[in-house]
Every structure is written in C-alpha cells, then in structure tokens.
Amino acid sequence: MAKNYKQLTESIKRQLNPENFVLRKSFSDELATISYSDVLTYIRVAMKGVEPEYTQKSMEAGEHVKEHLSNKLSNIVFRYQGSVMTNTHIKGFSDIDLLTISDKFYLYDANNVKAIISNPEKSSQYYQSSIDKLQHEISVSPYQGNPINDLRILRFDSEKILKEIYDICDTTKPKAIKIKNKSLNREVDVVIANWYDDVISIINNKGDYRGIQIYNKTTDNRENPDYPFLSIKRINEKSTETNGRLKKMIRFLKNCKANSDQNIDLSSFDINAICYDIDVSEYKTLSFYELVPILYNQMKSIC
Question: Is residue 232 part of a domain?
C-alpha cells in the first residue's frame, strides 16, 4: 500500500512539537515555503530534532528528581543517559533516564588489567604512563563492603523517597523506577547503578570512558557493563564533524521505524550503531535528501 507522506509528515510534526510550542521562526518559515514533493517534505521533517523547549521540560523533570533524591541520600552521583543527551529523540512524550550511581565503590576489569601487567608481551603494547595507571588500579585497597547490598538498599531507599513525592511511581520494573511529573507532563526513569572501569577507561583517566553496571531488582544482581557516556560523546563529536548529518540520519531511521506497519526489531542503540558505522566521507557534504540512499546502502550491506 502506498504511503500517504503528507499524513506521515503531520504525524512527525506532532511528535516534534507535541505541546504546540511556537516553532522556531527559521524552521517554520522553511516549511511554509518549501516546494518539495510530499516525500521530500517527509524526509526533511523526519530528520528534524524535537523542539528545544520540549526537551528543556524533560530535563527539568529530571532535575526535580535529582533534587529530591540528593536531599535524602548520600554517596551518590547523577548522570543522564539516552537519546535526549544526543538530541536524537523523536517521540513527543519520550522519557529521560536519570542514572543514580553509588559512589561508595566502583568495580574494574581486574582480570584483564592483571593479564596486561603480568605479561611482558602485552605490556609492551602500552605506553609506560598507561602501565602506571593500571598498576595504580591494582594497588588500591579493595572495597570492604557488599556492593550488591549497597545497590539493593539504594534502590529500596530511592523507591521510598519517590513514592512519597510522586502520585505516579512504578517500582515494578527490574531496572528502573518510573515516575511521572504531572505538572511538567514528563516521565523519568531512575536507574540504580555502580561505576565500572575497563582497561580503556583506566588508561584514558576514566571520565566519559567510564562504564556502569545497572542494578536489576528482579535478579538482585548487576547487569553486564555498559558505556553510555562514551556512546554519547562519540555521537555528539561525529555529528559535529558532519554538521549534524549523523543525527539527521539517526532521527530519520527512528521515524521510519515508528511509522512503519512492520515490526522492526531495532533498538535505539542498534540505529545509532548503524548510522555511526557509515564512513563520514560518504555523506559529510550531502544534502538532507541525499542521505537517504546512503542509509539504504548501509542497511542493504548489513542485511
């Protein structure tokens, strides 16, 4: 069945601006004077980011949660993760992920660190400054507490605090506490986690290279390490290098998935990876509509 791209375009406009903020004049004027076919208009709109005013309200909801938790908890730090941090979110009512990270301890990839230190052949592949950092990591006294118990208590205490404040507070999900700020009409996922450092994180002075392990309430254990801050850093940097084209492609694929009649089994992470993997030289000077065949060829090469 042929697609009605005019209807699809209107649908995406509502997603971009669900609360009817006044569109920025430059983009509003552009849409009013655009002379492209419905398909090209759809492509243009599908690549557009959500209105900044909408995103700001999502951030405000996250900041309110941070304030409530920090007032009653100690030894924690907060970070945001997800597509809001790269401005590649598309859904009008998408939530924001607030990582609540225990600062009482951190874990690191001890096996690989020790394997490098103890093996001259492996050690020779690293600068001495990097070896010094790895040796320092081994020399640090191990945490004497119980990491799982710390995470369990942090999850329990966070649930208790948020249930007292928010009427809508879902504590049944294994990896997140979902609240809704009714005055801002925003949802926030509160995710309990601990820091995790692999070899790359250690030799790069941690920072955005640090990983996390999310606490799973159902299994009462930690998930495998994830590196959300490095992903955010890479997407933001490469999109700057391409004058925003990378993020346009990511948003376009997300909108295609959202508007498809088919069940497309691709996560946001998958879509990020597909677009990020494309050689910058193939698209860094292209117009917006010329990015579509680039995406088509990339998808075809994968399939």
Answer: no
